[in-house]
Amino acid sequence: MPETSRRGLLFGTAAVSAGAFLTACTSNEPKEKAPAQSNQPAADDTEGKPVTIGFAGPQADHGWLNAINVQARSRAEKYSEVTLETTEGSNDTAAQIGQVKTLINKKVDVLVVLPADGKALTQVGLEAMRAGIPVVNLDRVFASPQAYRCWVGGDNYGMGLNAGHYIGEQLKDKANAKVVELAGIDNLELTKQRSQGFADALKNYSNIKLVARQAADFTVESGQAKMAQLLQAQKQFDALWNHDDDQGVGALRAIEQAGRDEFIMVGGAGAKSAMDAIKAGDSVLKATVLYPPTMAASAIDLARALGQSKGVSGLAEMEIPTSVTLYSAVVSKDNIDQYLPTGFS
Amino acid sequence: MTQPAPSAQHQGPGKGRADAPASPPSKKQGPGARVLGFRADVRNLSLLGVLVVLVAVGGITEPDAFLDTGNLQLILTQASVIGVVTVGVTFVIIGGGIDLSVGAMVALASVWATTLATQEYGFAGILFTAMIVGLAAGLVNGVLIAYGGLVPFIATLAMLASARGLALQITDGKTQIVTVRSVLDLGLPDSYVLGIPPLVLVFAAVTVAGWFLLNRTTFGRRTVAVGGNAEAARLAGIDVRRQRLYLYLLSGLCCGIAAFMLIVLSGSGQNTNGNLYELDAIAAAIIGGTLLSGGRGTIVGSVLGVLVFTTITNIFALNNLQSDVQQIAKGAIIVAAVLVQRRTLRGGDT
Known about the structure:
The structure holds two protein chains of two kinds.
Chain A: H1 2-24, E1 51-56, H2 63-78, E2 82-86, H3 93-105, E3 110-113, H4 122-130, E4 135-138, E5 150-153, H5 156-171, E6 177-183, H6 189-202, E7 208-215, H7 220-233, E8 239-242, H8 245-258, E9 264-269, H9 272-280, E10 285-290, H10 295-307, E11 323-325, E12 330-332, H11 336-339
Parallel strand pairs in A: 1-2, 1-3, 3-4, 4-5, 5-11, 6-7, 6-8, 8-9, 9-10
Antiparallel strand pairs in A: 10-12
Chain B: H1 4-11, H2 13-19, H3 33-61, H4 63-66, H5 69-94, H6 102-112, H7 116-119, H8 122-147, H9 152-171, E1 176-177, H10 181-185, H11 198-216, H12 218-228, H13 230-235, H14 240-266, E2 268-269, H15 277-287, H16 299-318, H17 323-347
Antiparallel strand pairs in B: 1-2
């Protein structure tokens, strides 16, 4: 038995030290501090009457959604009279309905809701509006306009359009230019809109042909896999549009592995890693089309204005608009410094 | 102290299993399997046939892109990560269990191994962390199932949920980019050995090790015995519980290795890694001839199953078919492959 106990001791020590090592390894604190969130409050920043804003979003299971939460929180902190009531993010429709109901019961002044599923949360949006709480619907739109006072969100069609125009301008003098598209999850409406916009923009350039399109699923892993196949299928092309910068990390990896650099790449969404690569300028990635997470900060601005019964400064209107569609700017080396602070990781 | 039982077992399994369990008619392991080995080969041969047909289809539809070394490297590389996972899962299924948590374990191991803190320890730190996290998760599965009496389906489903949750908690949903050069370089053409990507070499090594472990060791025979008829195995003197623990540990270890491979391949760790690996791995094992109820299966079959899937995906992508068509065709091909297999099997059965 002394043998077993010695072995036990050995394994025990190994296990304990491995455990200690691993616990130390969960930390993800960056060495340098993350860059501060963008710019100054937009509406009139004079302190108004106190407003409590209820915020319900989905679970931040990827970088963009995480940035949404950060933007909303940091924007609310800028206003001393704004109190932000956030719920735990959830991708479960039933759970999110419950959370919004809780916020209604708490009698918050304004609600900002980014639904896990827009259609499924329409009822609870209606309920809030009937209870006299104005709802700012963020990005994923409710089925009925009665369920929100104001919608603010991105423009997927415009994203594709702007990506297509950018690539079109870069390649307009090139005969028989070939373009490849790496799309996101194909059974999402937004992917169809992005692809449609992209195709429509390319129609303006008769010399450009979309030769291949594959759909990844917004993950690095799928981006690597699908891009590797695309590169194998197309031995030479001139431009690539990738719908999403997260999967773009994998796509860039596949491009590096294939040793290819004869084309330009345009990304989508506006991740920090993509912006860093654009700034460095040493990879095929030359631009990215934004789907700006700053929309969450704008939603807080709009909610605050609603709570204080004010309009938006810079517009003649007395009331805030019912719908705000954000512009998907193309971020390239020319304007990268302006957008770098909004990049998310 | 583990020796006496197995050595007694060593001679016996073929005989003991032949009369004790009345369950699956075709057992292929152990001495008694030599006659039946033919049948397993027919199974694999038919799968090989499917693969040949696929290669022909690929070669005809896209001769330029499909038939070159680059594409062969690509198919094998894409198969390597899920392939290693499948080897582990095959053991678990042959042993009468199921592991639904493999995808989640790969995700957890890959993000744990790519945190900024882990990356400070460089190559070794990342490799070590990935393997240990995989092993630890497998250990939890194994203990819950073997000693806690939980049904494998439930225990590994719970692991699926919590490992994914923990992975999300560690990353905060962010993509963790790897900056350790030695890890990144391993995935680049410069480190190919005689044109073979290192990841493919790892896959080959795991396959050979898995084959050896299943077919040439008491561990393998015990696995088959436990999966075929646990009660008979227990009466034959096998520590069934410990064997089950080992199987889940093995699956966890494979996930750890796969996680490291995925880090090398994608240059990052993300909590969405390994999405639906459990289904891919189980499907590959099943079309490879592994019996879902346990007691029978081959590593070669599983690996062929993985290669069939990867080749299908590759051909679809090269032909620029969109994902709706891909999914429909994939489902049809799975059914077709299994039907063809059955026919050949029945033909050789007499």
